[in-house]
Amino acid sequence: MKKLLITTVCLALFLNGCNSVGPNYVRPQIDSPAKWSEAKEQTEVKGAIEQTAWWKSFGDTVLDNLIEQAVKTNLDIQQAQARIVQARADIVTAGASAVPSVDTSASITRSKISENTTAISVGTPTTTLYKAGFDAQWEIDVFGGIRRSQEAAYARYDAGVEDLRATTLTLLGDVAKNYIDLRSNQEQLAITLRNVESQKQTVDVTRERYRLGLTSYLDVAQAEAQKASTESDAPKLQASIKQSIHRLGILLGKSPDTLKAELSEAKSLPKYDGVIAAGLPCELLSRRPDLRKAERQLAAASADIGIATADLYPKFDLTGGLGLQSVSSSRFSQASSRYWSVVPGVSLPLFNSGKTKANIESKRAVYDETLAKYRSVFNSALEDVENALSSYYAEQERHLILAESIRSNEEALELANERYKRGLTSFIDVLVTEENLYSAQSSLSQSDANLLTHLISLYKAIGGGWDAVDVQTVRETASLERNVGSSR
Questions:
Q1: What is the DSSP string of 72-126?
Q2: Quick check: is 12 in a domain?
């Protein structure tokens, strides 16, 4: 018995170590440009991008606190963490098939044999059988189907981790962008209210000149219409402020009005003064979580081909049993009551109407689709960076022009008011210059916000920021896994 058992186990271990069928995965090479076409001299493009919390360069503690809270409480991140726990469980499930499964059982069977089942009279047709022991089953992974299942499970787990990082990266950008929108709208509202006050003074001037008979009531009506038009922008901006606060509350995994008291007080836009670091295009493959996720999905698709291919080959299994059985309880524990069994088995598919080969072709097509997706995601990543760079530099130029426009419009309004008071020009000149100045001030404020928004888009495009909080999110995921395990 011992020789047979040892020989069988050794043979099984040898067969289990054979090479796996199907392709061995190799990460595909993707050609990338040597540099960014939209980069300028003031852009750092050489060397690896530092893994830093880019939002801290804005020097806004409120934004820092919002991002810190969001990483801890955002519900999208919690969903991504739960998916990682699921993927971890799938690894355990796949690995369980690679080792023998052992069950233990015990039974007492009382039975009566029919007297009509044999021509010979049975002396004691009623018997009791006592049985207890272990049963083991093991599928010997000769052609590597199980090993490919484990490979696929690990790759999908890795993809889940990258999905968590991609979710984190998106969250960082969303929180920062909505915070910029909030401060921008608050600043726009302040500009609007300042212009309303200025235009109220213009209304007072026209009323006084009308009272003195120096002008017609038309000037009064036009001044009031201008003030009302400017004033009408306030409710829209107030609504946008509330919407930004609501959105930030949701991003933090809370109710929309949770941050109302904290964020309602107007504050200036964050400031940024530094060199843009865009890195090199080839660095995207190692930095952007969506690209890393797509690559891991490709590895899983490759392993799936091997799983399907293994179905073309025989399956070997080993079943064994060991225990005690006796018809007498008093002799149940005696050595003579021991039993054992070793049953090697093999099964070979003969005919299934081409189902297995069709499944292999399907998995190969899935691999090709996933490879095309991987390349497509990379191209989109390149586009994201180029667009962010071009938008940022275009906004820089626009910002300079708007700043000059404000200076010119302020001089024009001062001159128009002076000439109107002296009766040297019509009131229409005052209205036009007031409107131009208000428009330029509003545009410059929006340009300040746009510069920050384009920077945020650039940092998202190059995959920056998730690594600064990755330790925290991974630690919380590990804690979640422990909690789920302990609850079982």
A1: HH-HHHHHHHHHHHHHHHHHHHHHHTTS-EEEEEEEEEEEE--TTS-SSPPS--E
A2: no
If one counts the domains in the chain, the total is 1
- Measured between alpha carbons, how far is 168 from 174 in angstroms, rounded to an integer? 10
- 60 lies in some domain: yes
Q: In this structure, is residue 334 part of a structural domain?
A: no
Digitized pLDDT (tens) for each residue of the chain, 488 residues in all: 445 444 544 544 445 555 788 899 999 998 888 888 877 755 554 444 555 788 888 889 999 999 999 999 999 999 998 998 898 888 888 877 777 777 888 888 877 776 666 555 555 567 777 788 778 777 787 888 889 999 999 999 999 999 999 999 999 999 999 999 999 999 999 989 988 988 898 888 888 878 888 778 888 898 898 889 889 999 999 999 999 999 999 999 999 999 999 999 999 999 876 566 777 788 788 888 999 999 999 999 999 999 999 888 888 887 878 888 877 777 777 777 787 888 788 888 877 778 889 999 999 999 999 999 999 999 999 999 999 999 999 998 999 999 999 899 888 888 888 887 887 777 788 888 888 888 888 899 999 999 999 999 988 888 878 877 766 666 666 666 655 444 44
For the chain, what percentages of helix, strand and coil (3-state, to nearest 5) are there?
65, 10, 25
Distinct helix (H) and strand (E) counts, the chain? 12, 6
CA separation for the pair 329, 325 (Å, rounded): 9
Q: What is the CATH number of the domain that holds 415?
A: 1.20.1600.10
Q: Give CA separation, 410 vs 199, 207, 416, in Å.
A: 14, 23, 10
User: How many whole angstroms separate alpha carbon 84 and alpha carbon 164?
Assistant: 8
Nearest residue to 163 (alpha-carbon basis) of 72, 61, 86: 86
Is 285 part of a structural domain of the chain? yes
**Per the structure block, which two tokens stand in for 82?**
């739960």
Domain, as residue range, for 63: 28-98+144-312+355-487
Rounded to whole angstroms, how far apart are CA atoms 173 and 465? Answer: 9
158 DSSP assignment: H
Amino acid at 26: V
* Angstrom distance (rounded) from CA 312 to CA 32: 39
